[in-house]
Design brief:
The chain is α/β, with parallel strands linked by helices. The protein is built from nine helices and nine strands. The strands form three sheets. Strands 2-1-6-5-7 form a five-stranded parallel beta sheet. The radius of gyration is 22 Å and the shape is elongated. The chain binds (phenylmethyl) 1~{H}-pyrazole-4-carboxylate. The site of (phenylmethyl) 1~{H}-pyrazole-4-carboxylate has 15 residues, from strand 5.
Length: 240
């Protein structure tokens, strides 16, 4: 997978080159190229923003600079353009799986009040464009949202995670939240590990884990229960 990121703060994306993701990049499992948007300005001040038509607070990112950047970066093919914004469709594990199947993603990091809408409208004439939200809050720029999405996507790529099973058993992969996890010691500050997990009875362990996931989902994210496909919950589940 090829990933390009366009931003006025390229160094903000440096953490993606650390640890597991950094090793995946070094191994060529994905490429990550980060571009400074100001490289496509032509004025001495390298201006990337201007006042909003219709008035209002803040500034809007100029269309000309973004247009030239995307023209150059997307000249050799048709990537999917992903634009983080509070006004986007929700980024979920399902979207991460969708993106993990893409050969080429280009992320556009907005700052200020955002990017002139015509940049996205023009880009949509020649590539798929997704305006995506990672949550219902407002950041200062898209860079942190891009790091969230790149991490969620990259960990799904073959070979990135040591144990592929952990991507399959993700939270959300069966539509439920993950239950609690434990490791040694058996008792810590007088808190004991639930007996069933040390019983060696894997049927009982699987049942207990599912019950814990159901209870946690019911209490913290009842919306996820409503979204479960028909028949996802068996008789025992419903009895919880
Ligand atoms: O703040 C976000 O993106 C940065 C951004 C982009 C455009 C204008 C303002 C801020 C964001 C919040 N949830 N998902 C994305």
């Amino acid at each position: 997978m090829r990933i390009d990121v366009v931003t006025i703060f390229p160094e903000y994306l440096d953490p993606l080159r650390q640890a597991l993701l950094g090793r995946a990049i070094d191994r060529g499992l994905l490429t990550l190229d980060v571009h400074d948007l100001r490289a496509w300005t032509h004025d001495v001040h390298k201006a990337v923003d201007d006042s909003p038509y219709g008035g209002g607070p803040g500034m809007v990112m100029k269309p000309q600079v973004w247009g030239e950047a995307l023209d150059e970066l997307c000249a050799s093919g048709t990537p999917r353009l992903v634009v983080p914004t509070p006004a986007g469709r929700p980024f979920t594990q399902a979207v991460a799986r969708e993106y993990a199947a893409q050969p080429w993603l280009v992320f556009a990091c907005g700052r200020y009040e955002g990017i002139d809408q015509r940049v996205l409208d023009d880009a949509a004439r020649r590539m798929p464009v997704d305006e995506v939200s990672i949550g219902d809050y407002v950041l200062v720029g898209g860079e942190v949202a891009v790091m969230v999405m790149v991490e969620a996507v990259a960990r799904l790529l073959p070979g990135v995670l040591g144990n592929p099973a952990s991507a399959e058993q993700d939270s959300f992969s069966d539509g439920l939240l993950e239950g609690p996890s434990y490791t040694r010691p058996e008792v810590w500050r007088d808190l004991a590990v639930p007996d069933v997990l040390r019983s060696g009875n894997h049927g009982a362990i699987d049942r207990w884990r599912r019950d814990q996931a159901l209870a946690r989902t019911f209490h913290r994210r009842p919306d996820l229960l409503d979204a479960l496909p028909e028949g996802a919950l068996d008789k025992h589940d419903r009895a919880q």
